[in-house]
């Protein structure tokens, strides 16, 4: 059995810290012309304090508009129908299913109470590439049912016991009740002719029944909602959750009175709520798509134009794991074309879209060896650009720093906006003046060493000191699926 693994971090002290993007290029090997070219790149990607403040303001406005009516805001503000707060004292055995990218995770969670003690038993399954596309999404659901069946055999399920299960989807789902929702957008890499608009819970119920599974789906939850609750069971003050990995999203607790579209939209099942605070899935990945609030460059616009989903998910394209490496690659190609890098010679690999994996940025930024040998391996062995000079490696490192820095500033400002909105609208700070915790999960956030401290620095800068000083950030590692089990528990006790 695996214990849930979580790490809590407090924000830096409330003393003001000046937030400077990479203002000193500090380049030892590049020629003056190369330094000037990189300085131009840095200038394009620099985000001013005024631009950050505008982002904080505009995202808060979009949140409010999205709570009033559908399709009026960049932010979908989808009600999760998960209400109330876990206490850490709840007990029981629950199943959870998570579909994340091309991975399926099936998990049995034993909640032990006692202030958030739990144990998990989890297996991971891969979705075959052939099942990522097709005419009938039921083919994918049948495979998922087979995975759940295999899991129940492995853990030794009890006879005559029907396990309550909650499902966490990476797909965008518009929920109309805790256990009812329609797919409104498939995840990255998935394409089914009948996928969008499908009632996913009803479909899963029917396919599970055909397989004879002793499972009852009691709830469906977005992966960001699960990130929030996975931390909240052990840290009940948690009121905001963020996923930042291949994509990004944010969920937070909202007062029922503020969700005015629940009162006006006949598609929403208002009886699903008991009046408690409800978790809202913001879908902030799409911020800046319709209303151009983000400080984009022509590099960003090129990336968006050539993507498989132009004009949507702009915030995601400027900050997350699928796109950051590609943004670096586009900048490097620009420098090559201007004969400022690799002697003006590229390679077939580097010319291939998405060949510069975002994980390469971690290596480049953290390479402090005298010869920048880690960067050399990436450029020469992975990207096949031929022999590189110290100036080449230095420039690549600097480009990674510049683009990585901007991404963290945008995420930090977005988080600050949600926090500011929550405090201004009656969520977050308790009557005794105590603050709340923010839960974050995702490979890029966990694996990119500079990401967390930079986000916290921006978050602190963009919030009043009396608010920033009362926040803490918990990084949820390997146990986001626990949140789905918490959703199942809360659904059973509702």
From TrEMBL:
<dbReference type="GO" id="GO:0005829">
    <property type="term" value="C:cytosol"/>
</dbReference>
<dbReference type="GO" id="GO:0005524">
    <property type="term" value="F:ATP binding"/>
</dbReference>
<feature type="domain" description="Hexokinase N-terminal">
    <location>
        <begin position="38"/>
        <end position="233"/>
    </location>
</feature>
<dbReference type="InterPro" id="IPR022673">
    <property type="entry name" value="Hexokinase_C"/>
</dbReference>
<dbReference type="InterPro" id="IPR043129">
    <property type="entry name" value="ATPase_NBD"/>
</dbReference>
<protein>
    <recommendedName>
        <fullName>Phosphotransferase</fullName>
        <ecNumber>2.7.1.-</ecNumber>
    </recommendedName>
</protein>
<dbReference type="InterPro" id="IPR022672">
    <property type="entry name" value="Hexokinase_N"/>
</dbReference>
<keyword id="KW-0067">ATP-binding</keyword>
<dbReference type="GO" id="GO:0005536">
    <property type="term" value="F:D-glucose binding"/>
</dbReference>
<dbReference type="GO" id="GO:0006096">
    <property type="term" value="P:glycolytic process"/>
</dbReference>
<comment type="similarity">
    <text>Belongs to the hexokinase family.</text>
</comment>
<dbReference type="Pfam" id="PF00349">
    <property type="entry name" value="Hexokinase_1"/>
</dbReference>
<dbReference type="GO" id="GO:0004340">
    <property type="term" value="F:glucokinase activity"/>
</dbReference>
<keyword id="KW-0808">Transferase</keyword>
<keyword id="KW-0418">Kinase</keyword>
<dbReference type="GO" id="GO:0005739">
    <property type="term" value="C:mitochondrion"/>
</dbReference>
<dbReference type="Pfam" id="PF03727">
    <property type="entry name" value="Hexokinase_2"/>
</dbReference>
<keyword id="KW-0324">Glycolysis</keyword>
<dbReference type="GO" id="GO:0001678">
    <property type="term" value="P:intracellular glucose homeostasis"/>
</dbReference>
<dbReference type="GO" id="GO:0006006">
    <property type="term" value="P:glucose metabolic process"/>
</dbReference>
<feature type="domain" description="Hexokinase C-terminal">
    <location>
        <begin position="240"/>
        <end position="490"/>
    </location>
</feature>
<keyword id="KW-0547">Nucleotide-binding</keyword>
<dbReference type="GO" id="GO:0008865">
    <property type="term" value="F:fructokinase activity"/>
</dbReference>
<dbReference type="InterPro" id="IPR001312">
    <property type="entry name" value="Hexokinase"/>
</dbReference>
């Amino acid at each position: 059995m695996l214990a849930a693994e979580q790490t809590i971090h407090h924000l830096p002290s409330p003393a003001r810290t000046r937030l400077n993007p990479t203002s000193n290029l500090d380049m030892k090997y590049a020629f003056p012309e190369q330094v000037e070219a990189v300085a131009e790149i840095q200038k394009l990607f620099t985000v001013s304090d005024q631009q950050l403040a505008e982002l904080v303001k505009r995202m808060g406005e979009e949140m409010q508009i999205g709570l009033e009516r559908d399709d009026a805001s960049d932010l979908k503000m989808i009600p999760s129908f998960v209400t109330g707060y876990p206490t850490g004292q709840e007990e029981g055995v629950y199943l959870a299913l998570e579909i994340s990218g091309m991975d399926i995770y099936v998990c049995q969670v034993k909640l032990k109470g006692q202030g958030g003690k739990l144990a998990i038993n989890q297996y991971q399954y891969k979705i075959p590439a052939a099942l990522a596309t097709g005419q009938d999404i039921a083919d994918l659901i049948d495979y998922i049912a087979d995975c759940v069946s295999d899991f129940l055999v492995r853990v030794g399920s009890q006879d005559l016991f029907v396990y309550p299960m909650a499902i966490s989807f990476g797909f965008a789902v518009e929920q109309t009740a805790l256990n009812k929702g329609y797919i409104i957008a498939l995840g990255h890499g998935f394409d089914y002719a009948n996928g969008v608009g499908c009632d996913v819970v009803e479909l899963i119920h029917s396919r599970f029944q055909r397989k004879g599974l002793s499972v009852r789906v009691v709830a469906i939850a977005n992966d960001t909602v699960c990130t929030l609750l996975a931390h909240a069971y052990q840290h009940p003050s948690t009121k905001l959750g963020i996923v930042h990995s291949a994509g990004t999203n944010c969920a937070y607790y909202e007062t029922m009175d503020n969700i005015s579209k629940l009162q006006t939209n006949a598609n929403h099942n208002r009886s699903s709520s008991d009046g408690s605070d409800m978790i809202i899935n913001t879908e902030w990945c799409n911020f800046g798509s319709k209303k151009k609030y983000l400080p984009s460059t022509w590099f960003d616009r090129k990336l968006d134009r050539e993507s498989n989903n132009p004009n949507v998910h702009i915030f995601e394209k400027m900050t997350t794991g699928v796109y950051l490496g590609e943004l670096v690659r586009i900048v490097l190609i620009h420098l090559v074309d201007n004969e400022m890098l690799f002697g003006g010679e590229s390679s077939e690999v580097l010319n291939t879209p998405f060949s510069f994996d975002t994980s390469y940025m971690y290596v480049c930024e953290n390479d402090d060896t005298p010869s920048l040998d880690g960067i050399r391996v990436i450029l020469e062995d992975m990207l096949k650009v031929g022999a590189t000079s110290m100036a080449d490696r230095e420039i690549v490192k600097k480009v990674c720093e510049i683009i990585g820095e901007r991404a963290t500033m945008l995420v930090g400002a977005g988080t600050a906006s949600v926090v500011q909105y929550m405090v201004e609208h009656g969520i977050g700070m308790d009557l005794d003046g105590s603050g709340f915790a923010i839960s974050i999960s995702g490979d890029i956030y966990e694996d990119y060493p500079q990401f967390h401290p930079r986000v916290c620095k921006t978050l602190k800068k963009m919030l009043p000191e009396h608010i920033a000083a009362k926040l803490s950030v918990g990084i949820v590692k390997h146990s986001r699926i626990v949140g789905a089990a918490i959703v199942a528990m809360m659904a059973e006790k509702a």
